[in-house]
Amino acid sequence: MVDETSIFIGASRKPDDSYQRAEELLLRYGNRHGLVTGATGTGKTVSLQILAEGFSNAGVPVFCADIKGDLSGISMMGEAKDFLVKRAEQVKLDPYQFQEFPVIFWDLFGEQGHPIRATISEMGPLLLSRLMNLTEAQEGVMNIAFRIADEEGLLLLDLKDLQALLANIAERADELSARYGNVTKPSVGAIQRTLLVLEQQGAANFFGEPALRIADIMRTTRDGRGAISVLAADKLMMNPRLYATFLLWLMSELFEELPEVGDLDQPKLVFFFDEAHLLFEDAPKVLIDRVEQVVRLIRSKGVGVYFVTQNPLDIPEKVLAQLGNRVQHALRAYTPREQQAVRTAAETFRPNPDFDCATAITQLATGEALVSMLEDKGVPAMVQRTLIRPPSSRLGPITPDERRKIIAESPVAGQYDQVVDRESAFEMLQKKTKEAQDAEAQAQQQNSGGSRWTIPGFDDVLGTGNRRSSNRQTVAEAAIKSVVRSVGSSVGRAIVRGILGSLAKGR
Ligand SMILES: Nc1ncnc2c1ncn2[C@@H]1O[C@H](COP(=O)(O)OP(=O)(O)OP(=O)(O)O)[C@@H](O)[C@H]1O
Ligand SMILES: [Mg+2]
Prior knowledge:
By secondary structure, the chain is an alpha/beta fold. It has 16 helices and 14 strands. The site of magnesium ion has 3 residues, from α1.
């Protein structure tokens, strides 16, 4: 029904509202990113659905978030409802075939899909600070914490590792301040408290192992279709910061892990970022700059990023400028801000002499949009008023039973379901504290015997009381150092952090 090099999106209309021509997204420009915008109920999710279907059929894996649960229907065969069949006729989609798509459900909370996890270490200080909404000073401490963990070979996997490390840092605040700059007990304490809040919000599920393998969201089926990873995001949306940080992390992981491939016939993966405004809402400028950088550079890794949001003004201009394939659904224009949004949206299109863009945006019907895809040489096509095709899969949510069945039969079933808690910073620091305490106790014992004798190899026999106490410290320090050395060698390599501060593997 569609040739191999493009995805059929719908049909554009002539000024008299009759059929004009098919509108298509060229797969070779699928990595030039995209934007789907429109007010509530105007057809954004369905547009996302038909794009995801198209990519999957072309063999391109897709990752998308399902904010309201209504995207889950993509895993089920569609039904010939009257309004869908009528729409198919209007856009000359013939034959209109129904299809179910290969879906892998994911859920940060592990309830509506396979648990999806990242380690603290992979997440990195920049994204964590954003997640925890830290002040600049606290972020500084967080950076130092990661540096100490890297240097001392402390594995940061889950929230309790980070808690243990912070507790350790609070104890050593004076020493660490001298070495790295300002590490105050109150700022460490503030981070610890934020961490508790994060834990209460259920983020503990998300941090730990087994962490997501990127390969698992880049699967294809035996019959050559791209898997569609659907992230259950209804509950996640109650913690927008976690939602945004998670997706940013995933994007930066893709960026760090995938090789440079240049321009391909079709993307290697397409990423839909629903409620994209949450990414940028009160985000610090550094972060926006980095996101802009990742979006710009990830293209040459064959990844297309599609932002879905109500209002194009939600997206920073520099990012907006990189989104080549555009679907603009209806916007309201009652308030001055809304009118401004309509003008901005209209101005971003290459104009069509047949109609006034700004007027059209306010008049579009449900499932109708102004569409401009990149055409030859990657130039945006003249904007067209387009009826979007109906989906081949089910419109609307699936039942819990249907979901359970798909999860049970998924290719990653069993891989992520159990948490693995291997030895990491929490256990290491516990051990370290115990060894230090033992050493202290030993020294104390020797001291309490009233003896002037010091421990061999650390002092001369004439040592004063003062010296003895410093010797005790030395013993304790030595114990700590030996532990640090042994765990240090288990990491044994410098840790390089990527653009978003997340861990770059395999370097
Ligand atoms: N291309 C289409 N073909 C047929 N029906 C459509 C199409 N697009 C939208 N519709 C109809 O409009 C309804 C609302 O569309 P959709 O859920 O995509 O809106 P939305 O913009 O995602 O809304 P929200 O902002 O509330 O999530 C759909 O349930 C469907 O009935
Ligand atoms: Mg929607």
